[in-house]
Amino acid sequence: MERAGFRREGVRRDAVWDGAAYGDDILMSILEDEWRKMKEEERKRDDLFE
């Protein structure tokens, strides 16, 4: 998710039970303006290779 532009905001330790063990719940987010900026940069890169 980090390669897609998301940022790790936190971890809820041992928050998830899968029936056999507890695991961490990692909280990720991306702001709309960060998403739009990333998409615009992708479009510019794509235009260079067309």
Fold and architecture overview:
With 50 residues, this protein is an alpha+beta fold. 34% of the residues lie in helices and 38% in strands. It has one helix at residues 32-48, and strands at residues 7-17, 22-29.
Main features:
two-stranded antiparallel sheet; 1 helix; 38% strand
Secondary structure layout plus pairing:
Layout: E1 7-17, E2 22-29, H1 32-48
Quick description:
By secondary structure, the chain is of the alpha+beta class. The protein has one helix and two strands, in the order ββα.
Helix- and strand-based class? alpha+beta
Report on the biggest sheet. Answer: 2 strands, antiparallel
In sequence order, what are the helices and strands, one letter per element? EEH
Spatial gap, N to C terminus: 27 Å
Portion in helices: 25-40%
Report low-confidence residues grouped into runs of 5 or more. none
Arithmetic mean of pLDDT? 94
Strand content: 35-45%
Query: Count the helices. How many?
Result: 1
- Tell me the radius of gyration: 17 Å
